[in-house]
């Protein structure tokens, strides 16, 4: 589990392409402070497992599903990536609940600066937009952000200068594709509501009993 608070920007040192998967080597600094083989690291929002590490480089495998669903399919040596270690049980929850299981990608279609904020407009598929709500949380390349606007084919986020400067969002431009993970809590609630509706079409509203039954309260 992650929180979407990027710890540092690392760099892809090498990419080894297999038939349907990848092996990537990434360099960094801070994330190596307490690294162990088997640790989970979010790389541009994609949860990867450390298979080996030395001299501030770690190796991870990217499975076919992640290659298919994320922008790691086009990663190259020299690219910068957002990095976050899995949250410690005693750590602060600075962002929101992030699983590192990317739902798909979106494309930046506009970037505007208004005063100190940067407004990113991102176009994505209806299946992802279905789980995005105004003022809700969204993870973009691993960074926890708040939705400032949602329309039928796109959504917007307003990003503060600190987040821009401390992440790879500073390198984004119109046309860039980004990894998107919607709010996991919202996804579960919608899943349970659909299951409940299929079981009994007469019950279509969220009730306290329904939320208790499914472990939300």
TrEMBL record:
InterPro entries xrefs: ATP_synth_asu-like_sf, Lumazine-bd, Lumazine-bd_dom, Riboflavin_synthase-like_b-brl
Self-association state and partner proteins as the record states: Homotrimer.
Top-level taxon of the source organism: Bacteria
Function according to Swiss-Prot or TrEMBL: Catalyzes the dismutation of two molecules of 6,7-dimethyl-8-ribityllumazine, resulting in the formation of riboflavin and 5-amino-6-(D-ribitylamino)uracil.
Enzyme Commission code: 2.5.1.9
Reaction equations catalysed: 2 6,7-dimethyl-8-(1-D-ribityl)lumazine + H(+) = 5-amino-6-(D-ribitylamino)uracil + riboflavin
Biological pathway: Cofactor biosynthesis; riboflavin biosynthesis; riboflavin from 2-hydroxy-3-oxobutyl phosphate and 5-amino-6-(D-ribitylamino)uracil: step 2/2
GO terms (BP aspect): riboflavin biosynthetic process
UniProt xrefs under PANTHER family: RIBOFLAVIN SYNTHASE (PTHR21098:SF12), RIBOFLAVIN SYNTHASE ALPHA CHAIN (PTHR21098)
Assigned keywords, A-Z: Repeat, Riboflavin biosynthesis, Transferase
Repeat region (Lumazine-binding), residues: 1-96, 97-193
A single GO molecular function term of this UniProt record: riboflavin synthase activity
One Pfam family cited in the UniProt record for this chain: Lum_binding
Protein name: Riboflavin synthase
Domain Lumazine-binding: 1-96, 97-193
PROSITE patterns, alphabetized: LUMAZINE_BIND (PS51177)
């Amino acid at each position: 589990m992650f929180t979407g608070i990027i710890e540092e920007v690392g760099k892809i040192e090498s990419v080894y392409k297999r038939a349907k998967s990848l092996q990537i080597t990434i360099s960094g600094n801070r994330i190596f402070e307490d690294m162990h083989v088997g640790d989970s690291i979010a790389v541009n929002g994609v949860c990867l497992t450390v298979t080996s590490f030395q001299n501030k480089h770690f190796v991870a495998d990217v499975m076919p599903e992640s290659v298919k669903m994320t922008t790691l399919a086009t990663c190259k040596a020299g690219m910068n990536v957002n990095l976050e270690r899995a949250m410690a049980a005693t750590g602060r929850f600075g962002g929101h609940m992030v699983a590192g299981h990317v739902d798909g990608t979106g494309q930046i279609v506009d970037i505007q600066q208004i005063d100190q904020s940067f407004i990113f407009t991102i176009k994505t598929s209806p299946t992802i937009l279905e789980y995005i709500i105004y003022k809700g949380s969204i993870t973009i390349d691993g960074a926890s952000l708040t939705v400032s606007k949602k329309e039928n084919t796109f959504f917007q986020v307003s990003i503060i200068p600190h987040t821009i400067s401390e992440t790879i969002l500073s390198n984004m431009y119109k046309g860039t594709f980004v990894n998107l993970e919607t709010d996991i809590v919202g996804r579960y609630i919608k899943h349970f509501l659909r299951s409940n509706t299929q079981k009994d079409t007469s019950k279509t509203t969220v009730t306290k009993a329904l939320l208790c039954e499914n472990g939300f309260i």
